[in-house]
Amino acid sequence: MTANGWLQILVFFALVVAVTAPLGAYMFRVFEGRHQPLPRLLGPVERALYRLGGVDRTREQTWVEYTVALLVFSAAGVLVTYVLQRLQHVLPLNPQQLGAVEPTLAFNTAVSFGTNTNWQSYAGESTMSYLTQMAALAWHNFTSAAAGMGVALAVARGLTRRPGPDGAKTLGNFWVDLTRAIVYVLLPLSLVFALVLVSQGVLQNFAAYREVTTLEGAKQLLAMGPVASQEAIKELGTNGGGFFNANSAHPFENPTPFTNLIEMLLIFAIPAGLTFTYGRMARDQKQGWAIFAAMSALFFAGVAACYWAEAHGHNMEGKEQRFGIAASALFATVTTDASCGAVNAMHDSFTPLGGLVPLVNIALGEVIFGGVGAGLYGVLIFVVLTVFIAGLMVGRTPEYLGKKIEQREMKLAMLYILIFPLIILGLSAWASVVPYGVSSLNNGGPHGLSEILYAYTSGTGNNGSAFGGINANTRFWNTTLAVAMLFGRFFMMIPVLAIAGSMLNKKTVPPGPGTFPTNGVLFTALLLGVIVIVGALTFFPALSLGPVVEHFVAHGGKVY
Amino acid sequence: MATDKQVSLFDPSIMRRAVGDSFGKLHPRLLAKNPVMFVVGVGSVLTTALLIRDLVARSPEHAPLWFTSAVTVWLWFTVLFANFAEAVAEGRGKAQAASLRKMRQESTARRLIGGREESVPASQLRKGDEVVVEAGQLIPGDGEVIEGIASVDESAITGESAPVIRESGGDRSSVTGGTKVLSDRIVVRIGADPGQSFLDRMIALVEGASRQKTPNEIALHILLVGLTLVFLFACVTLVPLALYSEIKLSATVIVALLVCLIPTTIGGLLSAIGIAGMDRLLRKNVIAMSGRAVEAAGDVDVLLLDKTGTITLGNRMATELIPVEGVTLEELADSAQLASLADETPEGRSIVVLVKERHKLRGRNLHDLGAQFIPFSAHTRMSGCDLGARQIRKGAVEAVIAHVERHGGQVPVQIRRDADTIAAAGATPLAVSDGARILGIIELKDVVKSGIQERFARFRAMGIRTVMITGDNPRTAQAIAKEAGVDDFLAEATPEAKMRLIKDEQQKGKLVAMTGDGTNDAPALAQADVGVAMNSGTQAAKEAGNMVDLDSNPTKLLEVVEVGKQLLMTRGSLTTFSIANDVAKYFAILPAMFMGAFPDIAPLNVMHLASPFSAILSAVIFNALIIILLIPLALRGVKYRPLGAAHLLRRSLLVYGVGGVVAPFVGIKLIDLCLVAVGAV
């Protein structure tokens, strides 16, 4: 580890801290403010979209209506994406004449983008036409991110709204949240940063692939395309699906250390900002910072461990020279903390412990800043659990923001907690003992198991990064991973929204000296403990057979 | 019951019965009530089946026979220990119930039907029946005195040996079955059907028979079941995942791992904690009608306390004599005594006591003096005596002034000033006059109970606001509130105002507790989240509240709140401890499981346990023993200190969180050493 490496990490984090408050405050105005920002410029766009969709923006929805709207919208998006892929050979904007996508792959990809996972069983440049990339995949990059933000906002409203005399029944309007997220947050920021990326040399064209002669005189086919416009939202929406197979390791996606910094910052920007937005909604900014602090601590633990493991082994395998070990370890930590899944180095080539960090980051439930929206609502579930145990220990029935946590919330929170390991461990166990599962592995032994675990963890956690070393484009893997992504997204969103619905109408008890404060250091520490313990206890046995064993065995001189 | 208050934590007779009960509770239907222990039970059955298989047909592939047997035995112990914990808690309740039952001996009641008496067994009395009870007889059932007055020995219920007066009408009309009439004759209207009496409900409650899981207990159960399922996935999927690495895990090992991981410590002790909470209240002579009420007590935000009897001693007492200029203190004292000698009100008596103690004036007899007593009337607002030509009066300052002026006397300016000063301090001034002369003022004060301020300070430290309820005017109320150290007061309180206050606080989301005894308290008691009725109170009050204090001591609320908090804290602490334990268990069991296939992972065996088998067995034994070791804590409850929430949490986390991580490392290592020492492994 070098001072320079740590400096890069600290500069990055300082930038994250710097954008959190302004972006969070901006988003508060967008979603909760009486008047949205930039009324001249974006107001007409917003209103036009409402007219187009027949949305009454003053009508709010109950949690059930909100959930139904979300599910219908997502299902429709997945369906359209599937159809576009299957028909891309007869549709325009296909200069490379790429054929129709195979059904299980098309299903996997449609689900993958619809769930904000962006797991890619395919190589973009050799599979997807420009139309598919732009209309189907980029569409989801915006909408799935916006949908995630919507759920986070709905939950935040459920927790922070104070019921009036006849109670509150609604927690926002899905269509309004969706539209505002796209119009006021995702589109403008993507536009600005796409231009920044172009200035650094990221491609943006519709040209056919270009054949060039290299300095040694060899022929090389250079993939082209509208990259920059996809790149910004890939990070900003914690999507992670690369235009190219090499993702952000590719020089046309991520050409310089500066773009690398920008891309990492974009990944954390909205999830970090939402903690601030949440604090404002809770009318106590410290509530947001307490969550931010817990996330930051986990981030630093991860990046320190990963950087240490990689630097200790002087491991440059699978890393780009222009980024080096520190920025690669940092990117790997950031992208897996935040359910983004973009990569600038091959996680498969990390040392066993270095590779364990991204895996653990995802396995903790994608709550270290987490996905756009998903990070906040995920961490709020852990907050509910934390408050439950802490509340008991101070001798009161548990409450959060003055609202009691009771049977129904515990039931739903446990459902949320249960679905995650059920899918990951269940599918991993299945894949590890059947020939059609293991035959996709390029590596044997514990490393092969790490690859399996990583794939399902990444899918269920809606991260989308791949450990690599696995040929996931088979019918078994495409289908099971699609199931993992679907369940990991929607079966976790539904209990979350249900909690929002049941918390919404609860009476608010004003805090007193007997109530346990959820905006201090102690709470942050406890929240950290709960996240780590729940994650560790769940996955430690499985992980110990994968990366942990691999680490010790590697010390004994055996590598896989 | 009073005799039973000192049941030791491990009374031998309770222990003996509990051991038997632990086996009785193995019945699947009973076990299924506790999902965590049910899983352990199923695991035990499974390993037992494996053991039988191994006994019948040995296979070198299976774990050694001694290992399977040892694990099986300890798994059964785990279930039995949890059952034992519950049985001990119930046993303590049952011991109390048994003494209560003795009171419910079959007695004969004298039922009145159409004015005629007939003898019927007490058990056949219905609600609404009227019975006659005379001196020396037991009251056959709960009810209300509708005729007569009697002194009743209620020591069987309250432990208080002094007899109490029960009379028809008013707030002292309620009687409890099983208590004994000592004098006179009363007619009682029975208020409960057989099996529904106060005594019956008490017996059912302390025995745990009618115990229902409380809301928070259910929520905690959900957490525990959820964790159990998570560990079930983790353990079951470990079999194929290990198979991938060519490790064949035996079912015994997987069951052992599962049982060690699932929260058996809290799962096994949860119901014992709940029962013990009710029991602790009972030991303080408070009967909670539901576990829910005990839980709510821990949450109370606002406490409503009646001034009289709770905060103050109950009656205003003379505390000071202030003569006007030109009058000696002795003269004032003499007249004050004369004016009060025949005054039987507590105030009057307190004046006589004061002058006797301070001014050595012995009591005299008005009759011997030939004086004529003038009793207090609402019209004159004075009392006193006429001694020959002397008209000695004491009374409200304005009334006395008017009286003096009527007799053409002078009113010194000082008198009004003194009166105002006294009133401003929350006390009551009484003026004393002799004929046309005003002699001075007697200060009557509400005397605040000693030690009450410390109690309120404790409440404040707990985050509970205290509100004093009084019929006094705001000025007096404020002075007393200040002296007693309550946070707020409601002056000139009417039952409606009290009710409104409760509803207002509840509207703000607060939980309100109050005590009460009168029939007019009943609606407020019912409305409050925690309503503690005094046993001396009316039947209506007792029905409306969700707790009854047998000692009729309003300050008992403090202890009720503490028990409620203790109950929740014990649950939270043991849950934390239980989960924290898992870290060490992983480090004991996982290396043991995989060491065969991957000898390189030996460094993970941080405890240096002797062998894989002893590692797993040690973890299982630790897991079982910890339940037994924590039974005293579960029954006694963790210690509650009135500290701020953050402070309290830090302390609990340190003890049960950090302690929970460290303890099993030590414990498992010790057990491993013992196993090696005795040559078991």
Q: In brief, what are we looking at here?
A:
The complex is a heterodimer of chains A (560) and B (681). Chain A is mainly α. Chain A is built from 18 helices and 4 strands.
SSE string of chain A, helix = H, strand = E?
A: HHHHHHHEEHHHHHHEEHHHHH
Q: Which regions of chain A contain 5 or more consecutive residues with pLDDT less than 50?
A: none
Spatial strand order of the main sheet of chain B? 10-22-21-20-11-18-19
What is the general shape of chain B?
Answer: elongated
Terminal Cα separation of chain B, in Å? 51 Å
Q: Radius of gyration of chain B in whole Å, from Cα?
A: 34 Å
The proportion of strand residues of chain B reads: 15-25%
Q: Considering residues with a beta carbon less than 8 A from a beta carbon on another chain, report the largest interface and each chain's count.
A: A-B, 70 and 77 residues
Oligomer: heterodimer
Radius of gyration of chain A: 23 Å
Structure description:
- The complex is a heterodimer of chains A (560) and B (681).
- In chain A, helix 1 (3-32) crosses helix 9 (257-281) and helix 13 (374-393) crosses helix 14.
- The mean pLDDT of chain A is 91.
- By secondary structure, chain A is mainly alpha-helical.
- Chain A contains 18 helices and four strands.
- In chain A, strand 1 (210-213) and strand 2 form a beta hairpin.
- A two-stranded antiparallel sheet of chain A has the order 1-2. Chain A has a two-stranded antiparallel sheet with strand order 3-4.
- Chain A is 64% helix and 2% strand.
- The two termini of chain A are 25 Å apart.
- Helices cover 52% and strands 17% of the residues of chain B.
- Chain B has 23 helices and 22 strands.
- In chain B, the strands form four sheets. In chain B, strands 10-22-21-20-11-18-19 form a seven-stranded mixed beta sheet, sandwiched between helices. A six-stranded antiparallel beta sheet of chain B has the order 2-1-3-9-4-7, with no helix packed on it. Chain B has a six-stranded antiparallel beta sheet with strand order 12-17-16-15-14-13, with helices on both faces.
- In chain B, helix 3 (35-56) packs across helix 4.
- The longest helix of chain B has 39 residues, at 65-103.
- The relative contact order of chain B is 0.10.
- The chains are: A mainly alpha (560), B alpha+beta (681).
- Chains A and B meet through helix 13, helix 14, helix 16 and helix 18 of A and helix 7, helix 10, helix 16, helix 21 and helix 23 of B.
